[in-house]
Amino acid sequence: MQGPPLHQGGATPTPLIWLLAGTADGPPLAAALLGRGWRVRLSVVSTAATRVYAPHPRLELRVGDLADDGAVERELEQHRPRWVVDATHPFALRISERLERVCRRRGQPLERLQRPGLGGCGAASTLELPNLAALADLNLRGERLLLAIGSRQLGQALAASNADAHFARILDRPASLQLALAAGLRDHQLACLRPSGPCGDDGDAGALERALCRRWRISAVLCRAGGGRSEALWRQVCGQLGLRLLLLQRPDGPGGDGLPLQPLLEKLGQP
């Protein structure tokens, strides 16, 4: 699923923006950039993520991880983007730090999208945590804690928590399952599924998560303040079921917080 560069003969190709994004912020941002006339090279982690992007003659897709600085260097060298735009998840610090480091070294213009936080959506009983280490300061004895923080930090969360029982909702990917098992969780403590719809959706948004919480008799949920669909969902579910919500605050991004959508578009301008 890759469109050719928009140029014919010896004409100068349309300037390129290299956009790194997921399935939440990426589609509207890509659509806005294309609507302004940019050619967009979009990097996503999985083939499944490409399905939420509408085909466009000026949209090129790159699927896969950027495993090291060299991979970023090769992309920049080959495609020569005018801008790099980091619209990855607020907790995806590894790739954001890599982009910041390589682009600064090369003098490559880089901007980061600032995802807005969620307001008073959902759970009333919410405790904000500055980091996972803060779990160790909480008395969670008697709690049955559901970890909804992805798979990479499960080991750290389990080491810090003194809850009576732990469970985790992870994405339905082999790598996520491997990390969860390596952290010490067992099959009966894991659910591999994708989030339902966001807070405020009609229909059965959160039905699977509510059923999961009831099956495991969950009393508290730990999730990340990513500002996206997953946080909205767990706020909603915890509010509906009267569960305690532990909200892991987003870390400071490299190079600052970035720009909200409209100021970002204004700064990028048109090709």
Could you walk me through the main structural features you see in this protein, from its secondary elements to its overall organization?
The structure is a single chain. The chain has 271 residues and is an alpha/beta fold. The chain has two domains: 16-113, Rossmann fold, CATH 3.40.50.720; 126-248, Rossmann fold (3-Layer(aba) Sandwich), CATH 3.40.50. Helices cover 30% and strands 20% of the residues. The protein is built from eight helices and eleven strands. It has helices spanning 26-35, 69-79, 93-106, 154-160, 174-182, 207-216, 229-241, 261-268, and strands at 16-21, 39-44, 59-63, 83-87, 110-112, 126-129, 144-148, 165-170, 190-192, 220-224, 244-248. The chain has a six-stranded parallel beta sheet with strand order 6-11-10-7-8-9, sandwiched between helices. A five-stranded parallel beta sheet has the order 3-2-1-4-5, sandwiched between helices. The protein starts with 15 loop residues before the first strand and ends with a helix. 34% of the residues are buried.
Secondary structure elements and pairings:
Elements: E1 16-21, H1 26-35, E2 39-44, E3 59-63, H2 69-79, E4 83-87, H3 93-106, E5 110-112, E6 126-129, E7 144-148, H4 154-160, E8 165-170, H5 174-182, E9 190-192, H6 207-216, E10 220-224, H7 229-241, E11 244-248, H8 261-268
Count helical runs. 8
Question: Strand count, sense and closure of the main sheet?
Answer: 6 strands, parallel
Structure summary, number of beta strands: 11
Mean pLDDT comes to: 88
User: What's the order of the H and E elements?
Assistant: EHEEHEHEEEHEHEHEHEH
What general outline do the C-alpha atoms trace? elongated
Task: Record the strand order, biggest sheet.
Answer: 6-11-10-7-8-9
Structural class category: alpha/beta
Provide the β-strand percentage band. Answer: 15-25%
What's the helical proportion of residues? Answer: 25-40%
CATH class descriptor name of the largest domain = Alpha Beta
Architecture of the largest domain, CATH level 2?
A: 3-Layer(aba) Sandwich
